[in-house]
Amino acid sequence: MKLLSPAISSLARMRLWRIEAWKNNPLDAQREVLQELVTSAQYTEFGRKYNFSNLFNVRSFKEAVPIHEYDDLKPYIERIMRGEQNILWNTPIYWFAKSSGTTSDKSKFIPVSDESLHNNHYKASKDVLSLYYHYHPASELLTGKGLVIGGSHRINPMNEEAQYGDLSAVLMQNSPFWGHWLRTPDLSIALMDEWESKIEKLAASTIKENVTSVSGVPTWTMVLFKRILELTGKKIIGDVWPSLELYMHGGVSFTPYKEQFQKIIGKTINYLEMYNASEGFFAAQDTPGEEGMLLFTDHGIFYEFMPVSEYGKKMPQTISLHDVELGKNYAPVISTNGGLWRYLVGDTIQFVSSEPFRIKVSGRLKHYINTFGEEVIVDNTDKAIAVASEKTGAVVNDYTAAPVYFSDTSNGAHEWLIEFEKEPESLEVFTKELDAALKDINSDYEAKRYKNIALRIPLIHSLKKGIFTEWLRSKGKLGGQHKVPRLSNERKFLEEILQMNTATFANK
């Protein structure tokens, strides 16, 4: 491997001229991407419906094709899942990336074409490697192996030809043979979906490997690191893997985790943020130490950006890349070589640079908690509250919830503040019913809660009546148009309300 690595790293650096071409000419790259997408799909069912053969520019494309959310494309996707082809994309689709659901489904299935695999996900991964070697020319990244902590769903058959799994599982299953030389653990372990056994086998199989990089969601990575230290008796991960030099993360904010990672690794390494979703590989950090991720403009995805204020309108307006403003919240709308057309991803982003275009993920269009990759939205929690209330006889006036972060001694949780009109006879029973309902509603929450490995049971506080009103009044936001945020990825609101509740009881 040490003999092969210099050759691979040289090839990685040779890609730089291609990266510079689209990085320096992003608008031209985007125009070419859209032209190729529309031309490729013009004779699909979707392309015929929206007259792709006569769409010759961005304006006509936007005028002809409406913005879609998952439920809008779901009827097309379900037909592809049953084996029909040439519906959304012109080449056969046999793979689907399973991710957390919408308001109407526990899970959603994103079509993954051969083009989206090779010209988006894999191409972007190669570009990330090239950029890393550009800034770290003395790197020994490829003298060892990359530990990939994949998703919680193995590849599953959908019909005789089609299969689905977490994006990481789909990517690993389809990676070239030489990719397995550079990765650990073995595919049979990487694709396991029973997390208790998976963590054990991940730890046991990688302890003696020369791991130089780790990639995965921070939640599971921290769980694995702690188990490895237990098994080895070592104090820090740096003693287990002395050559570890890079951690690649994405999907959730890394801010709450970075201090814990630095402490448990125990040595200075590089950190690299990526924006890689089931729908596509959108961006990655290209400059060490600088905020923002380089937007990938030549990777089979055409981008539009919807100002957040447009969300919910009958005919929401979008702008193209050349009109974006720094620091403003936009919802990305994408058209892809996997057959998603003017698809609203659901995230919100901000541009931090326009030369080149760099972005950061700022949140979601709707309130949510995604600190641990669980992607719990308000619709999920509203339904779970209703189920728990019905089963316990409780009546809930209002609530808010936020994450409890990992600590040295415990894993994460969701902390809830609930103002009951009618208290349940047992808050413990209410908590269990709420937790069970959330598991039924949201597959990602269910995976994170499995045997308390990543998330323990929620912590619920019953508040004094009127606390939420007092908090809104203290913010000058008392009125019909102002509401307590139901969910937040940060603890600021929850801490303020909890402190107010504690002070009220203390003054009684």
Describe the overall structure:
- With 508 residues, this protein is an alpha/beta fold.
- Among the domains are: 4-115 and 292-363, no CATH class; 368-506, GMP Synthetase, Chain A, domain 3, CATH 3.30.300.
- 39% of the residues lie in helices and 22% in strands.
- It has 18 helices and 21 strands.
- Strands 6-3-7-8-9-10-11-16-15 form a nine-stranded mixed beta sheet, with helices on both faces. The chain has a four-stranded mixed beta sheet with strand order 2-1-5-4. Strands 12-13-14 form a three-stranded antiparallel beta sheet.
- Helix 2 (16-24) packs across helix 3 (26-41) and helix 14 crosses helix 15.
- The longest helix is centred in the first third of the chain and has 22 residues, at 114-135.
- The radius of gyration is 24 Å and the shape is globular.
Radius of gyration from CA coordinates: 24 Å
Give the biggest beta sheet: 9 strands, mixed
- Number of separate helices: 18
Helix content: 25-40%
- The total of beta strands comes to 21
Which stretches of 5+ consecutive residues score pLDDT under 50?
none
Distance between the termini: 70 Å
Mean pLDDT: 88
Please identify the structural class as seen in this structure: alpha/beta
Rough outline: globular
Relative strand content: 15-25%
Largest beta sheet: what is the strand line-up? 6-3-7-8-9-10-11-16-15
